[in-house]
Write a structure and sequence with these properties.
The complex is a heterotrimer. Chain A is of the alpha/beta class. Chain A contains 6 helices and 12 strands. Chain A has helices at residues 2-23, 30-41, 56-64, 82-92, 105-108, 174-184, and strands spanning 72-76, 98-100, 116-118, 127-131, 134-136, 141-145, 160-166, 170-171, 191-195, 200-201, 209-210, 217-223. Chain B is α/β, with parallel strands linked by helices. In chain B, the strands form 2 sheets. Chain B has a 4-stranded parallel sheet with strand order 2-1-3-4, with helices on both faces. Chain B is 47% helix and 14% strand. Chain B has helices at 14-19, 21-33, 49-53, 57-71, 82-89, 100-111, 116-123, 143-149, 153-159, 183-186, 188-205, 215-228, 237-241, and strands spanning 7-10, 37-39, 76-79, 113-115, 132-139, 163-168, 209-212, 233-236. By secondary structure, chain C is α/β, with parallel strands linked by helices. Chain C is 51% helix and 11% strand. The N and C termini of chain C lie far apart (61 Å). The chains are: A alpha/beta, B alpha/beta, C alpha/beta.
């Protein structure tokens, strides 16, 4: 690997050198660059799609259940009511009362009643239930981040992806999420996943087909106001 | 509309000069009817586009300069083609990037250069009167006029004043017809695929007449329509607007006298 | 891949003979363009977003050295390893070295055009490493052993019937039907075990976020995340043009990319990766390697083609290109087809090799009109033609012809004489038919269409004789 590293170092200086030669610039004031970058975004409302007449929750539900995203939505009063909603979904789909969920305390602590839960995830897991960190109203997206109790693959391996999300956690725009992360001033997680509807493909004659590699069905349970 | 009669220098274009003078005379009639005094400088030949689009910028530059010299004295320069007007008004400035004196001269020239349909509608606020055409027509938006000069609503607005003319929309009216100047002879098979799509869409409208504002594109589409034996007459929009479209269409035999 | 751009005209002849090609192209581009139109109609802020995106890219290019270093620093801080490569060979050597150091037998790959550019498929084959393409379209063309014909939907040239045949032949347990849903299911079943068995996952990146050192991928299938999360090593190969300053800037492009590419508000999976698996993480790769590739982007940067580096690889230009729609992507003979390919191919290979590409264009301007970052593609095509003219690469017949033309148009009297003569000749050939069906020297025109007969007497002659209307 050492020669590779040398090659890489050489390429690095060649690439940066070529760019600088072309730019013909001497000193760089980093504050000026940062200021310019920020001012380019200007007033974000000018390029964000407007939906002033809709609440974030209404927009989120409309988008998530659109023909394009194909999710189904259930609304319950509190997280404690989520298992009953999951039970309803399993019955509707004629699925066995069995789910996988990530090893999160808030999910372990729920009373799952007749539903058998496990915390392993097989490549062909039929149904997984997990909890989204946030939702985005603009696009009907759900945001997941990787943590020690929140593995990434829960959103990708199961056939049925059941997602619990706090009704108070529906942000209006993608930018609102990033502003929050920036304000928290912590390093971003290993993986931040914006998930919008079920896995799909348009690769054969541009026909939209569901369940390409990831989940074919998405059911969203919104809890709380 | 200007207070005094503006003096217009008319740039015929090489195709109209050689192939279809009636488009030029229809233009003169419309410009005069719209209140212009029209002159046709004899020093004109071509707008330089064949050279420009082939990368022969030096040749194109000489020709554009020749056009500017011959036309800069007029109040307006009017061209019955979006692509030649686009060449002279928009693209030609690229030729003078390193020549500030000519760039300035070109700027002044470009500011008063117009494609004829947009000139009649936007500058002269012209509305044809007492003109009729018995037929159902569809309109193709030739690309240069559409994208370089914003010619889209003007021909439709003008044609609204033609009695007896029914306009029907053309699906993909903003898609290229496959002409592309020298493209159609450099890549004839590709050009043919594209124009076949266009004539299929034209036939689909059920129109008996095809109109557009650029003779190159019209010759391409008319040539294909003729080869396919479709019953569609093809005219430049000014021919209809000037009441001069009762004669032979493009690619049709002249009526016997 | 084996470049065939120099045989463009032969490639076109071959493409036009394919009985199903137009059907396949029309089925896909027809849907993509109409969906794009519909989704933009619901986004009145589009023009503002497009202008903002253009400015962000230009700003990023103006400080590209700075942003690359910023990205590198933050990516390393997140635990990733960053490599730089000037040439495709350096890039593949780097990747193969990483694979070998892990004794990798099998690699899953999530589609990236940069991977095609550097020839990652050939490099892995040479190293004896199994390559599993996980993007459905890439899977199809891997089975068919064909190059991609589109940058977003690489198997666009295949009809569903042709895909059905391929799957029946190659899949262990295929659906014997050309119903598209059944075909997708068949691929899912076939690829599932391969994801789990792979030693290394290779992906590209749609964006690199400078101020966090993040990689962003955008997919619909979810194959990228399976490729990048399951194996113990994740390698990213990415061009140096993919930078954006921050997540906020990236959001502008996320809104434009899927709308332009597929006519959807957003793709299903937009993922931001920051370094490898952290302590306590249950899944994720143990190592993340990022290979930043130049492949002549620095030369493009220093030329009139610089705006090309704004490109976000949405494919809208080709979906709307009449030439691409007539012949598909293969005749272009390289990784990138259509209008953006007609610029990138000469830039990344040579104008000698790809001389036809900037010429096989009608300059109709629709590509620029639909481009979400307003790249002046037609103007760059013309400038490439100018370079060909200057370097005497334009065919001799063209040079001679234009020489005569220029000589005449600069002399109005001579020009009139020539026109008058041509008109008489054409009228004689056409006689009373009003059209010419075959004309020596004009076969390019008359092979497919008639040539209208000129009217009697040129405009200038009639005008001189006093005709005024």
């Amino acid at each position: 690997m050492s020669s590779q590293t040398d090659g890489s170092t050489g390429a690095r200086s060649a690439i940066l050198g070529a760019l600088r030669k072309s730019l013909g610039r001497t000193a760089l004031d980093l504050d000026v660059v940062a200021g310019e970058a920020q001012s380019l975004l200007g007033d974000a409302t000018r390029h964000q799609p407007k939906f002033d007449d809709q609440t974030s929750r209404a927009r989120f539900i409309e988008r998530a259940t659109s023909e394009r995203l194909t999710a189904t939505v259930d609304e319950v009063a509190a997280l404690a009511d989520a298992p009953a909603a999951v039970q309803r979904y399993l019955q509707q789909c004629d699925l066995p009362a069995q789910i996988s969920h990530p090893p999160m305390d808030c999910l372990r602590e729920l009373d799952w009643g007749a539903i058998a839960c496990h915390e392993t995830l097989s490549p062909d897991e039929p149904v997984a239930v997990n909890i989204a960190d946030w939702a985005i109203a603009e696009t009907g997206s759900l945001v997941f981040t990787s943590r020690s109790d929140s593995p990434t693959l829960y959103s990708y391996l199961p056939l049925h992806h059941v997602i619990l999300v706090d009704g108070g956690g529906i942000l209006r725009y993608m930018e609102d999420y990033w502003a929050m992360i920036r304000a928290a001033d912590t390093a971003p997680p290993r993986s931040t996943n914006f998930i919008t509807g079920t896995s799909g493909t348009a690769d054969i004659e541009a026909q939209n087909i569901r369940g390409a590699h990831g989940p074919r069905f998405m059911h969203i349970v919104i809890f709380g106001e | 509309m200007p207070e005094t009669k503006p003096i217009v220098g008319f740039f015929v274009t090489c195709l109209v000069d050689a192939m279809r003078p009636s488009i030029g005379f229809a233009s003169l009639r419309l410009l005069e009817d719209a209140g212009c005094i029209v002159e046709v400088p004899t020093a004109q030949t071509c707008c330089g586009q064949p050279g420009f689009n082939s990368g022969a910028s030096d040749m194109a530059r000489d020709i554009v300069k020749q056009v500017i010299v011959a036309f800069e004295k007029f109040d307006y320069v009017v061209v019955p083609s979006g692509s030649c007007a686009g060449m002279l008004k928009v693209h030609a400035k690229d030729l003078f990037e390193d020549d500030p004196a000519w760039l300035a001269r070109h700027n002044a020239f470009a500011a008063k250069t117009h494609e004829i349909l947009s000139f009649l509608a936007d500058v002269m606020k012209y509305q044809p009167q007492g003109i009729s055409y018995d037929g159902v027509a569809t309109y193709h938006d030739a690309c240069s006029g559409l994208r370089e000069l914003g010619v889209h609503d003007q021909p439709r607005a003008l044609l609204e004043h033609v009695a007896g003319l029914k306009m029907v929309p053309l699906e993909g009216s903003d898609a290229c017809c496959g002409f592309g100047g020298t493209f159609c002879v450099k890549y004839p098979d590709i050009s043919n695929e594209i124009v076949e799509d266009k004539t299929r869409c034209i036939a689909h409208t059920g129109a008996d007449t095809l109109l557009a504002g650029d003779l190159g594109c019209l010759m391409n589409m008319a040539g294909k329509i003729s080869r396919e034996g479709r019953p569609v007459k093809v005219f430049h929009a000014v021919e209809v607007l000037a009441g001069m479209a009762e004669d032979d269409g493009i690619c049709q035999p002249a009526k016997e006298a | 891949m084996q470049q065939t751009s120099h045989k463009f005209k032969d490639n076109v002849k071959h493409a036009l003979k394919q009985p199903n090609l137009r059907t396949a192209i029309d089925r896909t581009t027809g849907l993509l363009t109409s969906r794009r139109r519909e989704t933009l109609a619901q986004y009145p802020e589009y023009a503002e977003a497009r202008a903002t995106a253009e400015r962000i890219k230009d700003h990023t290019l103006d400080y590209l050295d700075h942003y690359l270093e910023m990205f590198e620093k933050n990516a390393i801080a997140s635990g990733a390893k960053v490599y730089w490569a000037e040439t495709p060979k350096q890039a593949t050597d780097t990747i193969i070295d990483i694979c070998k150091s892990h004794d990798a037998k099998s690699v899953t790959r999530a589609k990236s055009m940069l991977g095609e550019e550097i020839g990652i498929g050939e490099a892995l084959a040479e190293a004896g490493i199994e390559r599993v393409e996980t993007d459905l379209a890439e899977h199809i063309i891997q089975l068919a052993d064909e190059p991609p014909s589109h940058i977003v939907v690489p198997a666009l040239h295949k009809t569903r019937e042709e895909v059905a045949e391929l799957f029946t032949e190659h899949h262990a347990d295929p659906h014997k039907t050309d119903d598209v849903a059944a075909l997708v299911e068949s691929a899912r079943r076939e690829l599932r075990p391969k994801y789990v068995g792979a030693d290394i996952g290779i992906s590209g990146a749609n964006f690199l976020i400078a101020d966090t050192g993040s990689i962003c991928t955008v997919t619909n299938e979810g194959n990228a995340e399976l490729t990048t999360t399951l194996p113990k090593v994740h390698i990213v190969n990415v061009g140096i043009d993919k930078l954006v300053p921050s997540m906020g800037h990236c959001a502008v492009f996320i809104r434009l990319l899927s709308r332009a590419a597929l006519g959807t508000e957003i793709s299903q999976y937009t993922t931001y990766y920051n370094g490898p698996k952290r302590s306590g993480d249950i899944d994720g790769p143990e190592e993340l390697h990022i290979v930043l590739v130049d492949n002549r982007r620095t030369e493009i940067f220093d030329s009139f083609m610089k705006p090309m580096l704004r490109c976000i690889r949405c494919g809208a230009c080709m979906n709307h290109c009449p030439v691409y729609n007539a012949v598909g992507g293969h005749p272009y003979g390289y990784v990138y087809p259509g209008p953006m390919g007609a610029i990138l191919t000469p830039a990344m290979t040579s104008l000698e090799e790809a001389g036809d590409l900037p010429n096989a264009c009608t300059l109709n301007g629709r590509c620029q009109e639909v481009c979400p970052v307003n790249i002046p593609l037609p103007d760059m095509m013309r400038r490439l033609r100018e370079e060909q003219w200057r370097r005497k690469l334009t065919p001799a017949s063209m040079r001679v012809g234009l020489g005569f033309w220029a000589f005449a148009v600069k002399r109005p009297w001579l020009y009139r004489l020539g026109t008058r003569f041509s008109v008489v000749m054409m009228r004689w050939v056409a006689r009373a038919k009003g059209k010419i069906t075959s004309l020596p020297g004009a076969g390019g025109w008359t092979r497919h269409r008639d040539l209208t007969a000129p009217q009697q007497g040129t405009f200038m002659d009639q005008y001189k004789r006093g005709r005024r209307s």
